[in-house]
Amino acid sequence: MKTAEQYWNPILETLPREQLQKLQLRKFQNVLKWAYENSKFYHKLYSDAGIEPGDIRTFDDIRKVPKVEKSMLRGIQGREPYPYGDILCVPLEQVTEYHQTSGTTGQPVFQADTWQDWEWCAESWAYILYAQGYRNHDRVFLPFGYHTAIAFWQAHYASEKIGCEVISGGVLNTEARILKMQELRATAMMATPTYVLGMADVAKRKLGIDPAKDLQIKKITVAGEPGGSIPATKKRMEEAWGAKVYDHIGATEIGAWSFECTYQSGLHVNDALFIVEIEDPDTGELITEPGRKGKMVITAFDRIAQPCIRFDSKDIIGWSPDECECGRTFRLIKGGVLGRADDITKVKGVLLAPTSIEEVVRSIPELGDEYEVLVTKKGDIDNITLKVELIPGQESNIDLVKTKLVDQLSLKTNLGYNIEFHKYNTLPRYDVKSKRFKDLRHKE
Amino acid sequence: MGQEYNIKGMTEKIQAIKEAATELKHISGGIQAVDRNVDRILASVKMLEINISDIANII
After folding, report:
1. Same domain for A202 and A309?
2. What is the number of domains present in chain A?
3. Of residues A255, A278, A227, the one with CA closest to residue A101
4. Site from B40, B50, B52 to mutate, A interface, most A CB atoms within 10 angstroms
């Protein structure tokens, strides 16, 4: 039975779709007007396109509004008002938070927030954590050195908002973090999938601690990488920790727009705070049907210092054909972010999504968690090298594992690979976002 | 589920908090300890508006 207690906001989260769409249209009109009137950047963008806020009267009109790309944001920053440039909608005196993107796809983008924006960031995360079962009896451990990246700051503030007790693992090293979690009997934590697996490995190898038996972590929220929505990776994390692992997706410029709830049926889009459009990457056609993948264009409604309106995220997502039993009317996407439009690359003439390789590697139990993919070019021929590690004790199974890898990679990606086995614990380990896919063709 | 809640009543109270906080700032005489804390109250009030008031005339 669905009860109000299972939702952060039972009104918004169960609002009938028709009413949600009315709310979205009105909020889109409001943020568009705000940006047009308060940001020189947006005013020029819309004026050049012949768009005024009053032109947006229907849901379909939203698609007339010009999109914003990360390259445009990079182009503005560094100018006055320094360092954000004229996208800023408030005086600098009202900015209380500085953060920046991770720089995975290029020069980091700066993000300004007012205190109200910061409250909103925590609010959007509160929807996520509450849906994942975080409550005021939880002791939440954040094994993360807080710095200019935004995600775990927001998680910290949202945990406090819910009433959880929050422990910052900040400058501790991995061993010390694990011991502190054990000492304080932490019940929940948040990290990237890479680090969740890395911590379990360190706990077992270096400390003789089995996180599934010796710690009391019962739920883990992951972010920053696709692993939380890759079934084989999720299974590894849940088994290693004896905990439920929930995915969430957010971005510095946008906010925390999507989350998995305790039913784990896919990721809900927070339709009350954002509007997500999925469009065909080639034609720009709006995709509404489930199962077809496209590029996400997203707007956050209530972030006022540096709004992101129709942001072309380049993330590839697709609507789910399933419905979640949780009772939320927020739409579901299937499989999380399936790749990036500029990440899905052609190798040997075949489109390759790096997430497909992760799914194969992590589904083979004889292999360790780490791997690396190098794409190189010799003459006109592309080559893919996959570096993996056998877990200790599995060395005699090398031929069997190689056969499994070759067969499954061929099936999933239609490509052949040079497989290299490396000694356990010799491939790079990452604490935050991993860089396992390296396309070196343009550098040769 | 929206019908089960007194959205109109909550919206009126949220508006009253907003007006009271704004009025407090007007009479603070520029005391930073008042003004800055009012700004924080108003940021929280905005979250109440997002969660409740913004849907008052949609439901």
Report:
1. yes
2. 2
3. A255
4. B50
A289, A311, A340 — which closes off a domain?
A340
Residues of chain B positioned with their CB less than 8 A from the CB of A10: 1, 5
Distance CA A434, CA A104 (A): 9
ipTM: 0.96
DSSP state of A108: P
State residue A2's pLDDT score.
65
So what's the pLDDT on residue A342? 63
User: Tell me: the pLDDT tens digits for A236-266?
Assistant: 999 999 999 999 999 999 999 999 999 999 9
Question: Do A244 and A106 fall into the same domain?
Answer: yes
**Euclidean distance between CA atoms A10 and A5, whole angstroms:** 8
Identity of the amino acid at A324 = C
Which pLDDT value is given to residue A122? 97
Under 8 Å CB pairs connecting chains A and B tally to: 53
A109 lies in the same domain as A126: yes
Residues A42 and A55 reside in one and the same domain: yes
Boundary-marking domain end, from A279, A309, A340: A340
For residue range A268-318, list pLDDT tens digits in order.
Answer: 999 999 999 999 988 989 999 998 999 999 999 999 999 999 999 989 999
Interface test with A, best of B7, B45, B53, B58 (most A CBs within 10 A): B58
d(CA A171, CA A165): 19
Point out the residues of chain A with pLDDT beneath 50.
Answer: 444
Three-state secondary structure string covering A337-362: CCEECCCCEEECCEEECHHHHHHHHH
Q: Which residues of chain A have a Cβ shorter than 8 Å from any chain B Cβ?
A: 4, 9-12, 14-15, 19, 22-23, 26-27, 114-116, 118-120, 123, 272-273, 302
Q: What is the pLDDT of residue A145?
A: 81
The domain in which residue A359 lies consists of 345-443
